[in-house]
Every structure is written in C-alpha cells, then in structure tokens.
Fold this protein.
Amino acid sequence: MFFNLNSQSEKKDNLCPFLYNYVNKEQIDGFKWISGAKRILEYGTGTGLSLDLFFKNRSQVKYNIIGVDIAGMAIEKVKIKYPKFQFYQIQNNKIPQVPDESFDAVFMFHVLHHSYNHTQIFKEINAKLKKGGRFLINDLSSNNIMIRIGRRLFIYFPRFIRNKFSYDLVVNGCIPDKYKVDMNLVISQLKKTGFSIEEVGYGHLFFFIFVWFEALVPLTRNKIIGYIYKKLIDFEKYLLRYKFFQRKAELFYIKCIKS
C-alpha cells in the first residue's frame, strides 16, 4: 500500500549537484561495478528512481532492463517512464515471468528494510542470475540513532517544512518506520544461497542531518559553507574506517557474485 501511494506523489529533487552526488554516492559507484552487464534485473524497481540515476550518464540503447516490484501502481508508472524496457508486478518474491540464469547482473536498492523472508529473495535472484553474475545490494540498517530520532520528530514539523522533503519517501506527510536490517545476517544468508562476497561498505554516518537542513536552507550556494560541508564529508569518511562507527552507519552496500 505504501509504495502504491508513494507512486502517486510527484517527487522533485531539490538537492544541489554536490549533495545529490554525495547522497547517492554508493549507488553511483555500485552502478559502475555492474555497468559492463547488458541484461540487468532490478528487484524492487518502484517508480524508477534508481533507473533515473543509472541512466543519468548512460545510454538506454546499450542495456536490456527488466524491473519487478510488488506495487502494481508503481509498475504502471515506471512503464510510462521507460517504455523500452519490461516491468512486471510480482507476488511472494517469485519472478515467473523470466527464465532462470538469464541475467548478467541484478541490483536491489532499499528493499530489505521494507521486507522480510530475505533468504527467499536471495534464492530467487540467484536462480535468475547467470553463473558469475553480479548482485549489488544497497540498503538501510536503521542503526543510526540521530536519523531514527529525526524520522520520529518529522511528523511534528509544520506542513510547510514537511513539504520540502518531496524527494524523500514521504507519503501524506509521514516517513514510515523501517525494519532493522542486520548486515552480518544478510551476508550469511547470501553465502548460504550461493553468493561469494566481493566487497562490503558503509555510508552516511551523520551527514544526512545536513542534507535535511539543506532542503530548508540551501547553504551550499555559499562557498564557505560548501567548503565546510566537504570537510565534514571527509571527516565522516575517516570515521567510517572504524568498526564502531561502521556499526552506527545508516547505509551499507554489498557486492557479491553468483558462485
């Protein structure tokens, strides 16, 4: 229901290019890892926001994209945006519309924190990938206490402030709760379903707070503030070298390969 409602909201990204690239850094870098694939499955395509990012600097002609999602209204919207590709509504995490071992790569962004039965999802994706195919995961852990507090307080903000966050997953003025995702458990499940782990990484320790503030007061137009923000990003990257801060990161990514 949430994603069907969400598909009816017009989303405008008000972030400046500098912050836009930072917020989506892990996805942008991950797309480079799978950009050599020709036939790609997106599991949980929604209204196509990740495809927008993928094709920002790439030609659609080079790729054959299949997208699947449980939200029928979202699927209908993405079909209009990308008529060249195929999109299917699925149930019970199964993808009967496509044959096994038919994809060079799969990517799945921000699905795990909206779902359960992750092992079943991984088994289905493993079946659809060719041997040696690449699987890219990008998701939220809900481990960052500052971000959890911010989401809880969001509903009490004045409406004119909440309306500034049209680029986020906000419906009827609310950011819904998310399931906590245990990255170590996810890695274990991936290995059991036939994937080898190539790389694990973390992102967004505290800078989301500044991104939210930027939506209200676009300070990055000021060179001094922009310089300070860049230094804060460097500081965040430094902290994320250490396990303590990695455990507090809001975002993680996993690059894995079908064995």
Notes: The chain is about 40% helix and 20% strand. The chain has one domain: 2-258. The radius of gyration is 18 Å. The chain has a mean pLDDT of 88.
